Amino acid sequence: MPPRPAAAPTTTRRIAVVGSSGGNLYSHGGDDPVALVEQVRRQAAAAGMEVTAVQLVAVGTSMDGAGQDTPARLYTLQDGTVAVTATGTLAEVNEAARALDAELARTVAGGGLDALVLVSADPEGVNAAVTRAAVEASLPAAGTGGTSIAAAQALGLRLVAASGTTGSTSTTRAVSYVAGLARHWGVRYRPVLGTAETSDGGGSPWRRISLRGIMVGSLPAFIALALLLAIGKIPGLEALGPVFDALIAGLPVVVAAVAARRVSGLGEVGLVAGAVAGVLSTEGGIVGGLVGGILAGVVVAYLLRWTLAHRFPVTTANIVAGGVSGLVGGLVVFLLLAPVTNAVGEGVKGGIEALVAFNPLLAGAVAGLVMWPAIMGGVYHAAILPLVLLEMGEKGHSFFGAVDMVSLVMVSLGITLANVVRPRTSGERALAASGAAVNFGFGTFVEASYPFIFADRKVFAVALGSSALGGLVVGATGAEATAYLPAVVAPFVATDTVGMVLSMVVGCVVPFLAVLALNERARRAERAPRAAGASVEVPAA
């Protein structure tokens, strides 16, 4: 092969991703080739690099058990999108991959590529041509896959980052590839971690801390707790009491795992770190799990960067970052902060109980009154939902949870039902019906009543008054429960079933009747001018 001509000056390094869905890799992200490549592209962009070519052979199972007749697909880069360009048996797709391999080899020889990323590649098979071309051109390469990396090294490929795949994820592998290439070229690189919603462009993990996001992510575990509490009240199932105690004791682990995963932005690695921290933080309650998980998530992000910067293989980097960071976050809570965090949780519970005990009617009415302004102003998920979950984490049910169900869900149900029975216009019935069904069947989507509240200030006044009245009944009966459950289930998780039913009926019937009357009045006012116009006599000519 003739000497490689000098590449034209460029500020963007060009990378080709070649390989397969792998054997062991298949269970570590290789089963989603598009996500795998997109992670490499995302990290490469953060280092001023660009993936300009892709050649990835994928099958629906581990390559270890694939045969020549196994259905396969070839993924390439088409107009900036990772797409399937060939399908058939593995033998047929390999032929198409070899043709692309020869084309990539010519691109390397012509100076069109600056590096390779090998993802469980086949340097002696379908990736042989581009590997040989990279060896002759002294291109740097990064890759994972024990067998393939060993074969590439034997051919003389200049590997700047190499590892197996065990214990890695698509994100950590991509970070490893790009970190190795950035180190080789002396390029500044900060990994971009987190999802599209939580990513901070590669900045500090502290900026990914969101109490709202963590609590909403943990919500299913709290609902499971409420359901278990309800089931335990069924005669003959009282033996589930220890199960309830075990679940409530394990809630800090759930909160810690969600927190660490979100803050670290590293998927499974952060999740494992959070679980380790959560186990050590259980004595600190829900707040302890929250603090331990956040600390673990912060440490794992920094520790992963540090290990990769010091040439740890990605498998070892994952193990060290996930395990050590979990221990750090958990031990801080276990040895130092557990009494404080536990006191905070107990203080929240005690404060709410003291407020209700001082004047239950006033407490319920005020709590109900602020519900609608809170959810409309974006305060609900940041302040009220955490209070509900903190209460539930302490005792399995919540005063604010009962007010939430009555003053938001049931009031919304009443407003939407009124617009099903007697809408102001025919088009409003279908809109209201879908919202009412979700409110009743799932205990959520209170926003279904927004179109009617925003269209008429009187309806908004009805919502406020009804929610305050419903909250007052909650306070009067002393019912505690939770929202996010079907309306027929909520009373059975409450501390007072009759009181909860009464509160829910008031919360639904009052706005239903009031909005029904407002709609009827509006319809009559609209018909009156038309009737008056029709009764005017036209003078004779």
UniProtKB/TrEMBL annotation:
The chain crosses the membrane at residues 209-231, 243-264, 284-304, 316-341, 361-387, 399-418, 430-452, 459-478, 498-518. The keyword Membrane applies. InterPro entries: PTS_Sugar-Specific_Components (IPR050558). It comes from the Bacteria. Keywords: Membrane, Sugar transport, Transmembrane, Transmembrane helix, Transport. This is PTS sugar transporter. The lineage of its organism: Bacteria, Bacillati, Actinomycetota, Actinomycetes, Micrococcales.
